[in-house]
């Protein structure tokens, strides 16, 4: 059977091919967006698995959108000045936390409540 560019069969195949590409790409984009939301990767930060890197962002506050499953958090080279009461509430899975190169001068005695594995 011969397919010409203008034949109905060719157009159907071409349309289905385009749809197949869209059907493959759309879920991939959606899954990427969902996994990013699940991780809770704050704007301007870089997330790799369960590690969150919010470095050199001039942050004065620790982002609140960090996932509870976060194992490592780097807040190096920011403008943090104090660590408040329950500052890391909900991040009880943390095993490492980098706070160097900030301007921290005040740490509440309960800032690290609930973090047992740090």
Topology:
Elements lengths: L7 H32 L6 E3 L2 E3 L18 E3 L7 E2 L12 E3 L7 E2 L11
Parallel strand pairs: 2-3, 3-5, 4-6
Antiparallel strand pairs: 1-2
Number of helices: 1
Helix fraction? 25-40%
Low-confidence stretches: 1-5, 29-39
Identify the strand order in the major beta sheet.
1-2-3-5
Give the biggest beta sheet. Answer: 4 strands, mixed
- Write down the overall mean pLDDT: 80
| Residue fraction in strands | 5-15%
Q: How many E-type strands?
A: 6
Distance between the termini: 69 Å
Shape: globular
Order of helices and strands: HEEEEEE
Radius of gyration: 23 Å
Report the structural category. Answer: alpha/beta
Oligomer: single chain
What does this structure look like?
This protein has one helix at about 10-40; strands at about 45-50, 50-55, 70-75, 80-85, 95-100, 105. A 4-stranded mixed sheet has the order 1-2-3-5, with no helix packed on it. Strands 4-6 form a two-stranded parallel sheet. The protein has about 120 residues and is an alpha/beta fold. The model is unreliable at about 1-5 and about 30-40 (pLDDT under 50). The protein is built from 1 helix and 6 strands, in the order H-E-E-E-E-E-E. About 25% of the residues lie in helices and about 15% in strands.
